[in-house]
Amino acid sequence: MIVKSKKRKSDITFIIGTFNEEKRITYPIKSFLPYGDVLVVDNYSSDKTVEIARSLGARVVKRKNKGWTDDEDSVNFVLKHIKTDWTYWGGADEMVSKKCLELYKKVALENKYKVVIQRKKTLLYESGTNFIINFINMHFFKRDALDFKNNLMHQKGRFSSHVKPSEILYLPPIDEYSVYHFSVYTSEKLMNVTNIYSSHQAKLISRRFLRLKLIFIPVLSFFWHYILGGLFTLGMRGFIISMQFSLYYFLTYSKAYEIEHNITMEAIEKSFVKDKKTLLLTSPKSSIFKKIIGKISVVLISFLHKKFKFKNSDLTIKSKSNDEQIKKSIS
């Protein structure tokens, strides 16, 4: 009996990184399967992500990652599990239009280009939004066209030395050729992710002009997203998102500063030992000037508390009642 080999749909493997994505994994797999193989790289999900992916026809491999999948080791691991020359690198929260997928297929067949540059259309809070300026994304590329050595988070690598300018296809930044990013984040979830991402990113960024970056990049990020990115049209939601982006960059560069200057929990606690030993042996002595300022501060604080903090409190009412009873008993 002769078994016919299954004909490959294209020379493309669509890679999807997942962790507990049972609610979102169906759509990208169904979208990509008609145009190539689909490989789900799962970070040991505890939900039904793997089960759903396999039932839809995707292959699944498991790999524990550090919270992101664009580092050199992760990329090399994935490339060992695919046989195609072309790869699309995405996530469970991303999709591409049929017209763009048809173009991918054509590009892979003609083999004229090695990297495709396109816009990412990020949807925030609700359907139909598109507010993050992100025109340079390398999701679709030939397997040896990008170098992921010392790759920054979400950088998607750099052009390999053999890639020529004529081998890069720049797609117009229109919806038909965009990567759709369905960003599902509340402030709580975003802060958790931001803390993880910024910790990894802080180890990788250049220390050159670090103090200036720490001061200016968060401010520029807010301006970039809120004004140029059009997030101001979302009202308060847009303001919140822009501030969250600024916070991400602030945390990233502040953590890089802490790494450079060895500011750790252990180092901080060690520096406190001197003060703790001093308090065990003696008491501090303040100058006359500090004592005067201290007394003035106490008078001011106590006055403000009585005026505003306890103005309508039960204690004030009881105090007034007691004063009246005292006056009556005296009279």
Notes on the structure:
It is a single chain. Strand 2 (37-42), helix 2 (49-56) and strand 3 (59-62) form a beta-alpha-beta unit. The strands form three sheets. This protein has a seven-stranded mixed β-sheet with strand order 3-2-1-4-8-6-11. Helix 5 (187-204) runs parallel beside helix 7 (236-260) and helix 6 (210-228) runs antiparallel to helix 7. The protein is an alpha/beta fold and 331 residues long. The protein is 47% helix and 16% strand. It folds into two domains: 12-183, Spore Coat Polysaccharide Biosynthesis Protein SpsA, Chain A (Alpha-Beta Complex), CATH 3.90.550; 187-265, no CATH class.
How do you describe this structure in short?
This protein has 331 residues and is an alpha/beta fold. The protein contains ten helices and twelve strands. The chain has helices at 26-32, 49-56, 72-79, 98-110, 187-204, 210-228, 236-260, 265-281, 288-309, 314-330; strands spanning 12-18, 37-42, 59-62, 86-91, 94-96, 115-118, 120-124, 137-142, 146-147, 158-159, 168-170, 179-183.
Strand content: 15-25%
Whole-number count of domains: 2
| CA-based shape | elongated
Radius of gyration: 29 Å
Per the CATH scheme, the topology name of the largest domain is Spore Coat Polysaccharide Biosynthesis Protein SpsA, Chain A
Mean pLDDT: 86
Q: According to CATH, what is the class of the largest domain?
A: Alpha Beta
Indicate the structural class.
Answer: alpha/beta
Helical residue percent?
40-55%
| Main beta sheet | 7 strands, mixed
Total of DSSP H or I helical runs spanning 4+ residues: 10
Q: What string gives the helices and strands in order?
A: EHEHEHEEHEEEEEEEHHHHHH
Low-confidence stretches: 1-5
Strand order of the largest sheet: 3-2-1-4-8-6-11
CATH architecture identity of the largest domain: Alpha-Beta Complex
Counting DSSP E segments of at least 2 residues, the number of strands comes to 12
Straight-line distance between termini: 119 Å
What do we call the CATH homologous superfamily of the largest domain? Spore Coat Polysaccharide Biosynthesis Protein SpsA, Chain A
